[in-house]
Design brief:
31% helix, 6 strands, 4 helices, globular, S-adenosylmethionine decarboxylase
């Protein structure tokens, strides 16, 4: 087991507010950017939460990938979004595709604040070429 786990906590998102509340629209864009990034969607699920006294309900959109998953959670009342992208790199390195997927989603939400993190998971059991690439990425040698 080895893979790349990317997260983004996005604040003060200045996108069209419908991206934060319209589950069907958000899911369509998620599946589009998954395909554009070169990953394979195998299933999807979206849920719209009910409105609260603070504003409209948010959305959780999940795309199951042959390579692992994408999850997007929105908080329209706070103009906030969290994005989670995980790809397994067992038979091939999907890291570049994961970064492309994350970049496309961050751009969609147009955040004024973004905290992004990356974890290389399962590195202890990774084949040697993936261990070296993970080490290079951690040093900033590879974008």
């Amino acid at each position: 087991m080895q893979g790349l786990h990317l997260t983004a906590d996005l604040g003060d998102c200045r996108c069209d507010p419908a991206w934060l509340t319209d589950a069907a629209r958000l899911m369509a864009r998620c599946t589009q950017v998954v395909q554009t990034a070169g990953l394979q969607a195998v299933n999807q699920l979206a849920h719209t939460f009910p409105p609260t006294p603070h504003g409209p309900g948010g959305v959780t959109a999940t795309v199951l990938l042959a390579e692992s998953h994408l999850c997007v959670h929105t908080w329209p009342e706070q103009a906030g979004v969290t994005v989670d992208v995980y790809v397994c790199n067992f038979s091939a390195d999907h890291s570049v595709k994961a970064h492309a997927l994350m970049d496309a989603l961050v751009a969609l939400f147009a955040p004024q604040q973004a905290q992004r993190q990356a974890w290389h998971r399962g590195a202890a059991s990774a084949p040697e070429q993936f261990k070296q690439k993970a080490a290079d990425m951690a040093k900033g040698a590879i974008e």
